[in-house]
Amino acid sequence: MANVLGVMWTVVGWILTQVGAMLLMGLLFPNPVRRAERRILERPGRSFATGLVFWVFSAFLTISLLQAKAAPAQILGWLCAGPMLACSIFGGAALARLAGSRIREEAPAAPRLLCVMGGAFCVTLAGLLPVIGWFVILPLSGFTAIGAGLWALAPGRHRTLISEGPDSGPDPAATIIGIPLPEPGAAGVRPASAARGNWDGDARLQN
Asked: pLDDT by residue (tens digit) across 38-59?
């Protein structure tokens, strides 16, 4: 009974830490996560192939170094696994955002952060499903996440989504729930000063 409870709490702890890591990466590093999400949407097959190759290379290098008797080689082996694990976390956060956007389409009134959290739980729990989750969902989502995360973190391979140039798109502050507001000089839209002047004139007429 104690062994069963130990396994159960280990699985629960792994799920919570996985979801927490996805949410943390999405909140602290939104640009790389958005780049990984875009990569998954545009090149899912290439992301899977890249992640598979990078995982095999990292696993082979890590295992080879860990089998060495020298302590520095073993430490280097654990360090070699770091980049692959980092890519998997960033790619997993991108999958959580993608699943969260699908959840929000079904429930538009739900908070965005709650939708992303639900997406993170869906991505994590789906890999625990016996047989299908272990041998289909987990490899597909895991290797795709690693490949997308590697592309998002690789320097010089992409443009940032948020730039300060003149063509960077509408100001995020000038939006309401992601819908851009019209410019003050657009047709049918009066500046705030003109509207305020008309309001003051109407007030003087009433007085």
From this structure: 999 999 999 999 999 999 999 9
Residue 98, CA distances (Å) to 62, 101, 119, 181 in order:
31, 5, 7, 25
Q: What is the mean pLDDT of the chain?
A: 81
With vertex at residue 27, the alpha carbon angle to CA 39 and CA 45, rounded to the nearest 5 degrees, is 15
DSSP 133: I
Cα–Cα distance, 140 to 129 (Å, whole number): 14
- Residue 197 pLDDT class (50, 70, 90 cuts): very low
- What's phi and psi for 177, nearest 5 deg? 55, 40
Give the predicted TM-score (pTM) of the model: 0.73
What SS3 state is found at 182?
coil
* 180 beta partners: 175
What letter does residue 175 receive in the DSSP assignment?
E
- At 23, the amino acid letter reads L
What three-state secondary structure class fits 179?
strand
